């Protein structure tokens, strides 16, 4: 499962970074996935971060990129 952050939705709370700093980081003040960690969607902490994201900017997709 792939995880991604929609830069158009994120407003920079960095809650994801505080929850799972090994997977999320900030770029120019907004959340982003650490390069190479895009396939971390199976991690329960990542799922929780997606569910708790205040701007709902984190997506977890199954299979190939762009499919749910």
From TrEMBL:
Annotated GO MF terms: 3 iron, 4 sulfur cluster binding; metal ion binding
Pfam families: Fer4_13
Record keywords: 3Fe-4S, Electron transport, Iron, Iron-sulfur, Metal-binding, Transport
Names of required cofactors: [3Fe-4S] cluster
InterPro entries registered for this protein in UniProt: Fe-S_cluster_ET (IPR051269)
Superkingdom of this protein's organism: Bacteria
Iron-sulfur as UniProt keyword: yes
PANTHER family: FERREDOXIN (PTHR36923:SF3)
Protein name as annotated: Ferredoxin
Organism for this UniProt entry: Streptomyces griseoviridis
